[in-house]
Amino acid sequence: MIEVKNLTKVYGNHTAVDGMSFKIYNGKIYGFLGPNGAGKSTTMNMMTGCLSPTAGSVRINGFDIYREPLKAKKCIGYLPEIPPVYGEMTPYEYLQFVADAKGLTYERAVRQVQEAMELTGILDMKDRLIKNLSKGYRQRVGIAQTMLGNPDIIILDEPTVGLDPKQIIEIRELIRRLGETKTVIVSSHILAEIQEVCDHVLIISGGKLIANAPIEELQGKVNSGCKLKLSVRGDEAGILEVLNAMEAITTCTLSPSREEGVVNMTLSVEGEEDLRDRIFFAMADRRYAVLSMEREEENLESIFLRLTEEAASAPSGATKKSRALPERDGEYELIDTDKEEKEN
Amino acid sequence: MSAIYRKELHLYFRSAFGYVIMALLLLFEGVFVTVFNLALSSSDFLYSLDAMKLVLILLLPLLAMRTVAEERHTHTDQLLFSLPLRLRDVVLGKYFAMLTLFAIPTLVTALYPLLLSGMGSVSLPTAYTALFGYFLMGAAVIALCAFVCSLVENQILAAALSVGACLLFYFMDMLSGILPATALASYLFCLLGALLLGLLSWRLSRSLPFGLITAILLVLVTSLVYFINADLFVCLVPNFLTSINVFGRMLGFSYGHLDLGGILFFLSFITVFLFFTVQSMENRRRA
Predict the structure, then answer these.
(1) What is the pLDDT of residues A38-60, one digit of tens each?
(2) ipTM of the complex
(3) Coil/strand/helix, residue A56
(4) How far off is chain A from B183, nearest CA to CA, in Å?
(5) How many domains does chain A have?
(6) What range does the domain containing A254 cover?
(7) Are A97 and B85 inside 8 Å of each other by CB?
(8) Chain A to chain B, count of Cβ pairs less than 8 Å apart?
């Protein structure tokens, strides 16, 4: 188990990680998700003792990584963003060195190196120089290294960056297999990856932890509400009046329309109720024609974008936020109408 | 420590690097022994070992660059930081690996006095004391270069700065000759030194109060001593610089004098610079 308390890293006058606190429990796959430069790598480097924090503490299985580094580091295997491999060594020699440095006896080292090579699929490459291996194989050598010494926790920083799709699938499969017996922490800026592999997500943006929840919960939170995209022919004031009468609608964003007298809008709806029937009949009563109505489930991608954008715009005030949303919706709208036109 | 030591040696001998460094050391040792001993029919190793100083100044920084500065460039230092190893052991492992690479050609050189003794009379104790001094000097230069290389990220810069630091020591006697020997001048230099030490302790400990206290204490002690007995400061700085000159310290050994003070000096010089190297690497983790 890892306990991170108030972890902060300041470079000059730039705060890379800002008071982060969370706990990592055993036996799950955790995902660190965040845009580039959010502070994922800095956090991981501090968690593994590669970097000293400006403030805060990290305890691994009860051992403080800065006060009892040797005991704490025995509990983790870490793969930094760039695999720390020596080009002049073969994977076998490299893994033997790491096993040696982790204090394994010769017999254990030989056995574990063999197991790690089997699991990561590098047996065929074990006698080639690492500098001659492809990026995918180097990454696997890096992952194999983390497994030596049988640590409880494995931390992988962007393990699939720069790999081809086949390699990505293989590495994900490997992460899942590791997750069966160990606690694994994976960082990524690719949402689909986290969604596919992890049980629990920590979303990081601007050095702050902005969400920390099991993946189903995060998806569930959003699925309880939905968005309706609506296109209605009629006068704007009248249409808004109809919609205002419905309490479940929290926001209504208008977007530009190409047709005269047609109002396009996106509604955010709270609660489980499907409002589509009510909206349709309410509009029909007032003789407004509903030209199209589409229900959009909010997926993890949009939560991620929303949360990271909120975090990014939070210091500059709410005005920027409310202005940013319609613009983006407007873009979506235009793309959608183009698509519809083509289909017609 | 042993894991790092074995890894470094493995890396030296996996590429041409280790062989090239050893071959160059052997080549120049051979050339100088031919020129100063064989050609001049002399049994004195003083001149051949003296000429080796410049070779060491050019080769040992490369060795340190490869061993200390390269890890940072290839990002393998992150592995060393995340492994359950003490930084002290990492530095010692690397240091002993460098020392081994330097020791092998020196051991081969140790055959020369025996070979020469077949051709005439050679004072073996004098020759081996000189070689011992030469080895200690090399060991001290390696520690100095390791420290300089641990300070910077760029490998070329690391090598250039190391060569510069070595040359500074090499020309130390000449430099100390041009410094004024009066008590006041020495006192001012001591104050400057105190401030520099304060700056160094601030940089290494990352604690401004600690650096300030160090500087103030040193300045106070220096001033107190100066005002009690200014005569102590006459010639102090030139003498001090001469006494810390790693290259000059070898001279006693070259004449066959097993200088106990010299041995202690070299060992403390190595300890101080290895300690600084550990601090500098620790500092990098905090950066």
Answers:
(1) 889 999 999 999 999 999 999 99
(2) 0.86
(3) strand
(4) 42
(5) 2
(6) 224-343
(7) no
(8) 73
